[in-house]
Amino acid sequence: MLPKHRSRRGLLAAACAAGLVALASCSPSPTEPVRAPVVHRTVTVVVTDSLGAPAPNAADFWVAEFDSAGVAETRFDQTDAGGADLQVLAEGPWVVTTAAAMSSRVAGASFVVSGASRALSDTQVVRLVLHTGSRASGAAKLAGRTEHSGTLVSALTGGFAVTDSTGAWTMAELPLGRWTLTMFHFGFKLGVAQAVVTVPGSAVTVPTVTMLSDP
After folding, report:
1. What is the pTM for the complete model shown?
2. Range of the domain at 166
3. Is 14 domain-assigned?
4. Is the Cβ–Cβ distance between 125 and 115 less than 8 Å?
5. Residue 51 is assigned to a structural domain of this protein
């Protein structure tokens, strides 16, 4: 039998070795890529009217690009007395739209929050000028059906519409820009279209989308 002090040392060494093995098993696999932390930055939207005057109490809608699970972060806020709204946003593509208080004037823009390529102390400013909103219309048809109602049409601007029995839909107060529209109906594949608004207060016709069955 080993002396008592030798036995205790052996137990201690074994315990240390077991601890190292456990620690190694909990560490990331060397084959897995190391993910850099997500950068967050201060982003300020500044909203003015066509004459450059600040637009206080404008309703702001912020939405991030959809992630791999089809989920997008959204935020609602409003501008302060100086027409500004400050948010801390994660790096990546975002859309912000705004609507003037007690008015049909709107504005919107897409932008990218910079990652580690810029100093962490940097901030970003998005400037929006309010104008008369536009109206988009189109149709979403359900393949193999004569009744086409109930399809939800939505845009990253926060606008939405529901189709009637003919598949027709109308969405109001779209800002200037190119906006992706998604069309959802249970049992059918997602429909996608583009609404391109180039003139304030205009009527935009979106091509008809036929949605295929999703077995």
Report:
1. 0.75
2. 134-211
3. no
4. no
5. yes
